[in-house]
Amino acid sequence: MQDVTPHILTAEERMAVEAALASLPTLNKHVLEQHLHKLAFVDGIPGEGTGLTSPSAKTGLSDITLRASVINEPLTTFLTNKERRVYKHDGSGLTISVTGTGTNALSYVLLHESTHVVDLSCGITTNPRSRFVQGIWTGHSTLAPSFAAITPKTYFRGADHLPIVKASDVYDALAQTPFVSLYATASRQEDLAEIVAWHEIYTQDGGDLIISLKDAGGKTVEQWHPLSFPKVRERFADVEKLLGSQLHCGNPT
Fold first, then answer.
1. Is the CB of residue 141 less than 8 Å from the CB of residue 157?
2. Which residues is 224 bridged to in the sheet?
């Protein structure tokens, strides 16, 4: 990423970022106030890369760095481009599209990334007894045996790109798991960030997440609604308990 350069926000972009930050859950905002070192936007990130949340040089603080073009990107475009990384063309003419409603890509990304800061600061997914880990994850990216047996192996879990003709089996399998997206299966950290983000989009913004498999003529062959998956819905109570807590994780050291 040799051509990546800092992006200076325009007045309109700054207003959009401020609105997205203001819409975050109270817990996320409180943790960012205490633990965010820098939120930055950059130009020149290649491909579908979006950004990174990582510990900064200052102990206890985190940096969030995002692709600037996400500020004006529709959520459906963002999600579809990301999901299509899982598959390769196989001559079937099938395509995958992901529809996200209720918010925009910027708000979704900041929900997701700010939850990473909550996780880094509060040690949620590093606690094996956490309600977001126990019975689901046994390590950073290692699933508990009961879910390892049924969770689809995709690009997000280090597998090769799949022929798109296998998409139906992939999402039928995902529907039997507690994961709201294929990306959530990448690691326990991504799982937490995804379930929190989509819970908020669903409950606060009235949004939805729809995965569509379409034929060569653009006709929908099958659809999946991850926010209605039984095991996903079971986790919403845990998200509500987390977001309603007074877990501000102290001050940075």
1. yes
2. 211
